[in-house]
């Protein structure tokens, strides 16, 4: 990509967004990051990034952040499987996306890459194979407020593309790797495993992908993606048991052998989430997370590999980087 012009990245302080910002800087792009005043900047320390303080829900600050930018990566999202006030997820994920798209259209930016999620996509019923960009799905099938808000936000991006806004949609699966500072629910699972706080597991499955491949996929989507199209940024479909066995080999910690029945997991989720409404702290076992685990989140990323050239780096390597980073940064015992 050309090094001239300014590129806006929302969510640049987060897991995926910080990797996108780093890759842009490495390719010679000038990067502006839209950040909130209270956002921790740890993931961007030492980088030559222009900080613009604002909020996705503040239309005026969004317009000012977009002004003068040639390209926009809208990576930011409120990614929580539980929130004391679910309306906050819709405000950030849906209305914030609308603000970005409208500001970008008004500023006549060259192109926008919108970061959705495979959670907004359909999964074939009865285990008839992995989901693709074309698997049908409805809002009613979305489990929980996070998925519903991202489904509605992606609909905003698709509608904008139909109206002539140059938007390309990417749907990352489950990224793993370094700099998962919050951490994400998957990162927290890795931390819990490393700290010996996972005595049992549930029968489910995920599509894992190296977070650096996801970042590269964003840049490839900006370069090669077709406007209005969506691209799954994923790699390998694995059961949770397979993931835990890989983590065991990397960390030299034993993997749990007890499989928790779904009914028991739902009961734990209900109790844990109920306590959270009292303590106002995130549940250790989110009810919505357990409900999501009822389906194997398996997806086919061949379209992104074929059309964009999405890398398919080793998942063992990505998990190894995640384990090392969590240990080096005090999340998990060495």
Write the layout of secondary structure elements.
Elements lengths: L5 E5 L4 H12 L3 E6 L13 E5 L5 H8 L2 E6 L12 H21 L3 E5 L28 H19 L4 E6 L1 E3 L8 H10 L5 E2 L3 E6 H14 L5 E4 L2 E4 H12 L6 E2 L2 H18 L7 H6 L9 H7 L6 H14 L6
Parallel strand pairs: 1-2, 1-4, 2-3, 4-5, 5-6, 6-10, 7-9, 8-12
Antiparallel strand pairs: 9-11
Helix pairs in contact: 1-6, 2-3, 3-4, 7-11
Report on the architecture of this protein.
- With about 325 residues, the protein is of the alpha/beta class.
- The chain has a domain at about 5-175 and about 210-235 and about 300-310: Rossmann fold (3-Layer(aba) Sandwich).
- About 40% of the residues lie in helices and about 15% in strands.
- It is built from eleven helices and twelve strands.
- It has a seven-stranded parallel beta sheet with strand order 3-2-1-4-5-6-10, with helices on both faces.
- Helix 1 (about 15-25) packs across helix 6.
- The longest helix has 21 residues, at about 85-105.
- The protein is globular.
- The termini are far apart.
- The model has no long low-confidence stretch (mean pLDDT about 90).
